[in-house]
What we know:
Layout (H helix, E strand, L loop, with lengths): L1 E2 L6 H9 L12 H6 L4 E5 L5 E9 L4 E9 L8 H15 L4 E6 L2 H6 L3 E3 L5 H10 L2 H4 L4 E6 L2 H6 L1
Parallel strand pairs: 4-5
Antiparallel strand pairs: 1-2, 2-3, 3-4, 5-7, 6-7
Amino acid sequence: xxxxxxxxxxxxxxxxxxxxxxxxxxxxxxxxxxxxxxxxxxxxxxxxxxxxxxxxxxxxxxxxxxxxxxxxxxxxxxxxxxxxxxxxxxxxxxxxxxxxxxxxxxxxxxxxxxxxxxxxxxxxxxxxxxxxxxxxxxxxxxxxxxxxxxxxxxxxxxx
Length: 159
């Protein structure tokens, strides 16, 4: 079900992600962006092999990574794919050695169900700085919430 994408999936990942960009649910991603970050993506495929879900990691530092580009095609909703993608990408972040993962989203319930805690966006000045340069609307949208999850046991017990 979950797999690493191949170069043949680049256009499909960009199209799926960009399906939600007009609503502000995702940032628009070019095929070039997807290609450059292909190793940071995970996808879910339908039985016919078509990409119906995707998510990626976007590194801020050796200890901090953002979950980005979470998208599930409307035809595949209601199957738990969003939760599966969040759990798998979080596990990938843990295996890569990040201390913490964070995300911004309109959906509180899905992230809280996956063990993320609601945070103030100001807790992640790296995000504010980066997206002020890329797309100011990403940090100005009042309905979006910020969530984080500590990945290393020693950091979790210190918090």
